[in-house]
Amino acid sequence: MPEQETKKKTSGWMVLMKIMVMLVLIAYLVFSFIKEHTWKNHAPCQDLIICVKDKSQASFVSEEDLLAILEKKHLNPKGSPINQINLQSIEKEIKTHQFVLDAQCYKTANNVVHVDVEQRLPVMRIMSSTGENYFIDGNGDKMLNVEYPADVVVSTGSISQKYAKKYLAHIGKTLQENSFWNSQVEQVNVLKDGTLEMIPRVGNHVINLGKPTGIAEKLKRVKVFYDKVLCNVGWNKYSRISVEYNNQIICTKTK
User: Fold this and answer.
1) Closest CA to 188 of 125, 121, 144, 104
2) pLDDT at position 39, please?
3) What is the pTM of this model?
């Protein structure tokens, strides 16, 4: 009996020791996690990386411009404790730039702050007969003080700001979304009665679009005419191609 009792006591102590070791290990892991988490939260921001998208289409805003904005407002996070950096404030300040459409700010595990910026891209340049010269974005809003070149269609003629916003912004987007027409169209001219003429890059003809509505369908008809007729008779066969009226194409031969 005494021997059995001794074995039971020994076994009990071993179980108790195992439990104590496990508790100590768990306590150590919890302490290490809290310490590591606290250190990471208070660790300094290692870098700020600003990435401007769509730079191949236009460069209306640069990383240097946006960094200068943050520096002026003392919002450059580099060197600041990572847990004290206000991402929303950085985004809000970046968006004050007139050519910024959107900004997304986030932190990475290596304590680096990233800002991904989407530009307000122009869809057309307006050069009206009244002397106005400006770009419009996809919403038809004016983009002032443009200092960088942008490869977009130029619209000339009798253009009011209301007309540009209502019609030309949509036409500009329609052209940009079609790779063929984006390359082919050089100029859109607005006549005094509000109808449109389009000047292509290839061919010595003028395309009469008529009223500024149903542009995508009109361009589709012109493209079919290009593929089935002009490719066979030559690009300079006609001086004028009109798709003003539905379901028909009227051409004027070059004299």
Assistant:
1) 125
2) 46
3) 0.67
